[in-house]
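Chapter review. Work through the record for Alkylhydroperoxidase before attempting the end-of-chapter questions.
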Amino acid sequence: MSIIQNFNEYRAEMNEKIMAADNKVLKRIFNLDTNAFAEGALDVKTKEIVGLACSMVLRCDDCVRYHLGKCHDLKLSSAEVYEAFSIANLIGGTIVIPHLRRAVEYWEALQEENV
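Structure tokens for Alkylhydroperoxidase:
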């Protein structure tokens, strides 16, 4: 199983369990996240780039993978993604580099999956 399939299947399975708990606060947080990334004053592409950079600075590999998947779906170029990487590393400092490595690995897997 690819790292992409593994991530997507695990995320879907766990989100299903979380939603099945029927916790009002958790459901509202998930809904807020969905609505925050919808088209608005900023287009969806811009929001995903912001989400990617913020996730890298916060060093959340799951979030980085999620936003990379969305960036891939939105047909961002590698140049666009690497610019987001560069800003994240500038803002976050060298501690972000290990997350950059994993992000590059995941981005390459996304690119190869579409070959």
